[in-house]
Design brief:
Layout: E1 3-9, H1 16-26, H2 32-44, H3 60-65, E2 72-77, E3 82-87, H4 95-102, E4 107-113, H5 120-131, E5 136-142, H6 151-165, E6 174-179, H7 203-209, H8 212-215, E7 222-229, E8 241-245, E9 251-252, E10 256-260, E11 264-273, E12 276-278, E13 280-281, E14 286-291, E15 302-305, E16 311-322, E17 328-329, E18 333-338, E19 341-355, E20 360-362, E21 367-368, E22 373-386, E23 397-401, E24 408-414
Parallel strand pairs: 1-3, 1-4, 4-5, 5-6
Antiparallel strand pairs: 2-3, 7-8, 7-15, 8-14, 9-13, 10-11, 10-15, 11-12, 11-14, 16-22, 16-24, 17-21, 18-19, 18-23, 19-20, 19-22, 23-24
């Protein structure tokens, strides 16, 4: 069954956790004990309705404060799809958490409180979706029941957000506007009778109809070798296979390939998935590949189609989201993990800091603090083979690791 991963973003008290809880409730994805716990807690709080946010806010601090702090992953399925929702915090001091949750998502939901409209945090949420090249964004205007389901309010917010869209640099993004009431269930799973002026789909109907072919920026195939398989048994004495995952495109038997970094030429002989042979390995499939001739291929090498080479270099410039309390400064050294490869990286220059509310950039920055986003140039001790993030999300992203404590301190997206 197709799996769709969705990131969510919303300011404090926009109703994001309630929206997710409502989806789980209306799709009958809540277990009996979870539903009983929600009913019991809602009564204890004196509510005359079910507090669906209790279905997602797992930390005690989240339940006490009524806000989302950590990234939670919620799983549910319908007849058409399986879903993973990355419930990310929306407040400014949790920018790194939102980047983490959205970095692997294929679609995104941005919540806006109908009473407040587009606010500064909305700018940040949209900026991060733009930065991470999330192709399908659903702008969900929540709490429509508190503005009497007003079409004028909806149109005003839609116009304000459309003005924000003019500032983006990623023009392939598809934006869909849906008015909802997460508390009442209007247009969440089922279409609402309270907004007859809205002729579009409910939120779940829209997600059900998303085609992953349209969501992904399908680029050229990249096959990082994770493991060399040499069984050395009597039946497979001469077998030499290369296990990994196909990213960005397809590989087929007979394709002329290059092995990086050596640039040795060969041709794909067979493609295996367990003990079955396939003619083509589709994008994001984990397979084992054999080659026509016996050449030297090791873990960390990359198999690409001949004529579709990535950039091979010992430096690049990337947008960084800094996640550590210790500042990033020019001259600092980190372990940079790009796919299965690790290299020692030196910060050559902090080019500028990027204000995630679309207010511009700051130059002459001496260091980056936690949650800062900036353009940074790195140099490595050996070459990497990479793509621009806008062209290839997997081969264009990386993480930075502190060499002293092995903590992940930053996430990067190659420009």
């Amino acid at each position: 069954m197709e799996v769709l991963k969705i990131a969510t973003a919303g300011s404090v008290d926009d109703g994001k956790s309630t929206l997710i809880g409502r989806i789980l409730y209306d799709t009958k994805s809540l277990t009996t004990d979870k539903l009983e716990a929600i009913e019991k807690t809602s009564k204890q709080k004196g509510y005359d309705y079910l507090d669906f946010s209790l279905a997602t806010d797992g930390l005690v601090a989240e339940r006490e404060q009524g806000i989302t702090i950590d990234v939670a992953h919620i799983y549910f399925s319908t007849r058409k799809k399986s879903y993973i929702i990355a419930d990310t915090p929306g407040h400014v001091e949790y920018t790194r958490n939102m980047v983490t949750g959205a970095s692997t998502s294929q679609a995104s939901i941005i919540l806006i409180d109908a009473r407040k409209g587009v606010i500064e945090q909305t700018n940040r949420h949209f900026f991060i979706n733009n930065l991470l090249r999330i192709k399908d964004v659903v702008v969900t205007i929540n709490k429509m029941d508190l503005v009497d389901y007003s079409e004028d309010v909806y149109n005003k917010i839609k116009a304000d957000f459309s003005e924000l869209m003019s500032k983006r640099d990623y023009q392939d993004q598809k934006i869909t506007f849906i008015p909802v009431s997460a508390l009442k269930g209007d247009n969440v799973v089922n279409r609402s009778e309270n907004m007859p002026w809205y002729k579009g789909e409910s939120l779940l109907e829209h997600l059900e109809g998303l085609d992953k072919k349209d969501i992904y920026n399908v680029g050229t195939p990249r096959f990082p070798v994770q493991y060399v398989i040499r069984p050395k048994t009597e039946d497979f004495h001469d077998f030499r296979g290369y296990a990994g995952k196909v990213y960005g495109g397809e590989l087929s038997v007979g394709d002329n390939i290059l092995v990086l970094p050596s640039k040795t030429r060969s041709k794909i002989k067979d493609i295996y998935f367990y003990d079955e042979k396939y003619q083509t390995a589709s994008r994001r499939s984990s397979v084992t590949i054999t080659l026509e001739n016996d050449i030297n291929v090791s873990r960390g090498d990359m198999i690409v189609k001949e004529g579709d080479l990535p950039t091979i270099d010992k430096q690049f410039t990337a947008n960084i989201c800094w996640m550590d309390s210790t500042p990033l400064e020019a001259g600092s050294k980190y372990m940079l993990q790009h796919g299965v490869n690790k290299v020692l990286a030196r910060v050559e220059k902090i080019n500028h800091k990027i204000n995630p509310d679309y207010s511009g950039i700051e130059k002459n920055v001496q260091g980056l603090g936690v949650n800062d986003i900036a353009s940074v140039t790195f140099k490595f001790n050996k070459p990497l083979f990479f793509d621009q993030f806008k062209n290839h999300r997997t081969n264009g992203s990386f993480i930075l690791i502190d060499t002293q404590n092995n903590h992940t301190v930053g996430a990067g997206f190659i420009q």
